[in-house]
Amino acid sequence: MKTIMIYLPNKPPHQKFWCGGKKSYTLIILWAVLVALVFFNKSHALIQNIIVKTSMFLVPERLAQKDSANIALFLEQIRALKFENNKLKTALEIQNHYRVIPAKIKFGGGYLFIDYVFADEGAKSGIKENNIVVTENNVLVGQVEAVGANWSKIKKTGSLGQKLTLIGEDPNLSFDAVGLGGGELAAELPARLSAVFKPGDTLRWAENPNYTVGLIDKIDFKEGNPFGKILIVSPISPSAVIWVNILPNND
Length: 251
Description:
This is Rod shape-determining protein MreC beta-barrel core domain-containing protein. It holds the Pfam family MreC. The chain is α+β, with helices and mostly antiparallel strands. The protein has two domains: 17-96; 101-247, Rod shape-determining protein MreC, domain 1 (Thrombin, subunit H, Beta Barrel), CATH 2.40.10.340. It has three helices and twelve strands. The protein has helices spanning 23-40, 44-58, 64-97, and strands at 101-106, 116-119, 132-134, 140-147, 152-156, 163-167, 174-181, 184-190, 202-205, 212-220, 227-233, 243-247. A six-stranded antiparallel β-barrel has the order 1-2-5-4-3-12. A six-stranded antiparallel barrel has the order 6-7-8-11-10-9. Helix 1 runs parallel beside helix 3 and helix 2 runs antiparallel to helix 3 (64-97). The radius of gyration is 32 Å and the shape is elongated.
């Protein structure tokens, strides 16, 4: 594109009409464009075109080469900020629908009780009794049984006497399991289901299949017996869990 230069008649020939503007004007416009892109999601091609043409209009020719490098840097910063802005928007949208409270398992007295652990977040963070507790990989750790200002007592999955309804690969086939303590559960199933399950199968919580409860450890189906037993163990070791996510009720 050919640029036509206009000179003032009462000015020296080397001073252009539009070079009277200061370089700061260019920076102001560039930052205004940057804000527009980040917060109003304007077209990147359109913004780039505006920046280049504005700089050609405002910047003296002797600074054009230097400002070209600045423009390239600004455009790179715009791309980076737009990317980070989109990430933040996505994170906020997810958080609004699936809010979680990260908490750290407290070592010490909590492990004197085999069926309970304690976390370092409590009522001040919005945690309430019966909130679900899971790992980052969506393994069901347990449920909150008691809450203090800055702590939560968590009853672990598989605690003694706990009853959970589980499902395997077939979501239409569910059964009840009872906790044996220490993260283990047992279930009694009709013998006709002996071929449906096998050791190593993953079992999920029927109430929310997104959460894994445990793995089948042993199967005991004896010929002639109408019922058989399966033993289920948690896929995680409580002593290895440091961080958990507590899911507050989304009222």
